[in-house]
Amino acid sequence: MRFTKMHGLGNDYIFLNCMDGIPDDLPGLARRLSDRHFGVGGDGVICVCPSRRADFRMRMFNADGSEGAMCGNGIRCFGKYVYDRGLTDRAHLTIETGAGERELSLLMENGAVKGAVVGMGAPVLGEPVALLLGGDPYTAVPVSMGNPHAVIEADDPARLDLSALGPLAERSPAFSRRVNAEFVRVLDRGRLELRVWERGSGETLACGTGACASVCAMAAAGKLDREAVVRLPGGELAVRWEEKSGQVFMTGPAVTVFDGEIDS
User: Going by DSSP bridges, is the β-strand pair 11-17/44-49 parallel, antiparallel, or unpaired?
Assistant: First the structure.
């Protein structure tokens, strides 16, 4: 089985070309391939599939085998994958995801795809909720970007023990289902820093949907402009939340790490 390892700001995925068929037991395959000691290693697996209503369909599986609806870093890499491998010659694509169709425009440099601008849809913000994590009080803003997030303000995200707090937030009874948890700090009107605990994968170096959710939550609270740079452990993303349309646009890089083959 051929695969391609790719990443967006260190949020890494194993890409499989499934245009001619889906492998058996994708959840089990995702767990096996994502293992960083006995597999290829990654935050999950992304399958490139045909679509009846869009240019392609993206299916994304977390490292624990659970299927996710949307992945912001993954969809940028998805666009680079299909272009680089000649599956399309167009720089503007519509991708079917579990969260609906998403538009992306590839960013080219000397004929090569370096990243993408992704139309992430409109956020759905909930009312802030009080959380008690590790004995300390926090306030979380529920935000859906097609997948569920809890945006939590913190004085210094870099100093938090995310291995302890992340699972507590992910499975908090305050939310109706498991969430991705973003611990954020506003640096100024145009900059935000965050660390993220992704459900099914643990702490990752970046989360595109989480960056978008965090900008929207802080902008709605009047603490951040609607266009901001988000600083993550793996690098920076640019996020713009349009006031008129309500749509969120994310810009960031996409990188191919290597191609390989494993026993199927």
Answer: parallel
